[in-house]
Design brief:
single chain, Dihydrodipicolinate Reductase, domain 2, 10-stranded mixed beta sheet, 6-stranded parallel beta sheet, 19 strands, binds nicotinamide-adenine-dinucleotide
Length: about 400
């Protein structure tokens, strides 16, 4: 038995990652790739022809025509996730939405409630923790190789532009006045990084204090240019998250444990710069990777970390023409496909809501002079309320009534 999967949304992330991975998984007999859909009809047609599957410009029509579709992979803009996922769930299909799960926690709950009511599973296409290098790092942490993790840190600049000559910082009071395809950085790349910080800490956050700042004077820019957050984890570990899109800024990820650590200045690259305490000294630990070419793709076979005991990561997709990056996507697609077939929870699911919750806490703390926000968040934040009001003012309907 194979899950029958459809793709909804054929824009950039679909073309780059979801569709080619879906095709390769289908070729290897892991899933059936049944149909695709995009409301942009020429794009749907062109993509359908490229991938040799039926194409549609309406999701409802696609589902009506293919009652056998059991899973829909939703790769549309952030503000649309909850409405589309609800519609799909109400038609009895399992759903996967791209990250961030939804714009606010009430919107995440629209998805969760719709799936619960209709007896289907939901997955969030958070891909980073599923990539080979990240799986190996988490395995090292779980095996206690780093000792107790005390500090986890992500500092991520993105598309650095120059500051304006006179920098006046404007706090984020009305965060989103426009509902385009994008979220602010704490949600966009932040969803990935906050997820990774939880994996590195192997713990849940208990409180977050943050500041989110906008420096550019153009009133049309409604998202943050810079953010800092301090995260307290249950374990006692401290998390640091920083993101920026202005000025020069370092880029690194660090996991510090009592027995050693990883300081990674190239976290998109394949290397794991692991150092461990050996007696009085810190030493670099060798990490070996094995690769082979499959259909022209450089495919990772395994990662061997020469610690005692050795940590070995075996790529479950080592027989497929899938590169390291798309292993993350293959893993998420099979997660929801297996959930559909075996009626068991997908691997991440509610984790996607936790990423949104952490981002909401950063924004909320910033609105209240960096006062810590306790987690879990128990009621709607003032940040979320402002966001919902902005949406309703613009579109004349509540964002979470879809
Ligand atoms: N996991 C990752 O690494 C990663 C990377 C990039 C983007 N993303 C996420 O992927 C999602 C999509 O990214 P994007 O917004 O840049 O993509 P995009 O704008 O390039 O494509 C979205 C497509 O969805 C289609 N669409 C929208 N609503 C539709 C509907 N109701 N029915 C059918 N088609 C519809 C649009 O026509 C468009 O072609 C976002 O949530 C984004 O955060 C994830």
């Amino acid at each position: 038995m194979k899950a029958k999967v459809a793709v909804l949304g054929c824009g950039r992330p679909s073309q780059k990652w979801h569709l080619p991975t879906m095709r390769e998984l289908a070729k290897r007999g892991e899933i059936d790739f049944v149909a695709l859909c995009d409301m942009d009809e020429p794009l749907a047609r062109k993509t359908g022809e490229t991938y040799g599957v039926p194409w549609y410009a309406s999701a409802e029509r696609m589902l009506d025509k293919h009652p056998d579709i059991s899973v829909v992979d939703i790769v549309t803009g952030d503000p649309t996730h909850h409405g589309i996922a609800k519609m799909i769930a109400e038609r009895g299909r399992h759903v996967m939405v791209e990250k961030p799960m939804a714009l606010t926690l009430p919107c995440c709950d629209v998805i969760i409630d719709a799936c619960r009511r209709n007896g289907v599973h939901f997955e969030v296409a958070e891909n980073y923790f599923r990539m080979p290098k990240q799986r190996a790092i988490v395995e090292l942490i779980r095996a206690g190789i780093l000792g107790d993790v005390v500090r986890v840190c992500f500092v991520e600049p993105k598309a650095q532009r120059s500051f304006e000559q006179k920098a006046t910082h404007r706090g984020l009071t009305r965060p989103f006045s426009k509902f385009g395809a994008y979220s602010g950085m704490c949600m966009d790349m932040g969803a990935h990084r906050l997820s990774q910080l939880r994996f590195y800490a192997q713990s849940e956050p208990t409180q977050i204090a943050g500041t989110v700042r906008r420096y550019r004077s153009n009133p049309d820019i409604v998202h943050e240019d810079w953010a800092h957050a301090l995260i307290d984890f249950e374990s006692g570990a401290v998390g640091i998250y920083e993101t920026s899109r202005l000025g020069e800024a370092p880029k690194y990820c660090q996991i510090a444990g009592t027995l050693g650590g990883i300081l990674d200045t190239d976290y998109f690259g394949p290397d794991i710069p692991l150092r461990l305490r050996m007696g009085e000294e810190m030493q670099d630990i060798p990490v070996r990777t094995e690769r082979r070419r499959i259909d022209g793709v450089d495919v990772l076979q395994r990662i061997v970390v020469h610690t005692d005991p050795e940590i070995v990561y075996e790529n479950p997709f080592r027989h497929c023409a899938i590169n390291d990056w798309c292993v993350g996507h293959a893993s998420e697609i099979l997660s929801i496909a297996n959930a559909a077939l075996k009626d068991e929870p997908p691997e991440y699911g509610i984790g996607g809501r936790k990423d949104v919750e952490m981002a909401m806490a950063i924004y909320e703390s910033s609105l209240h002079g960096m006062a810590p926000v306790q987690l879990p968040i128990k009621s709607m934040t003032s940040y979320e309320r402002a966001l919902h009001e902005d949406f309703e003012r613009q579109y004349g309907r509540p964002i979470d009534k879809v």
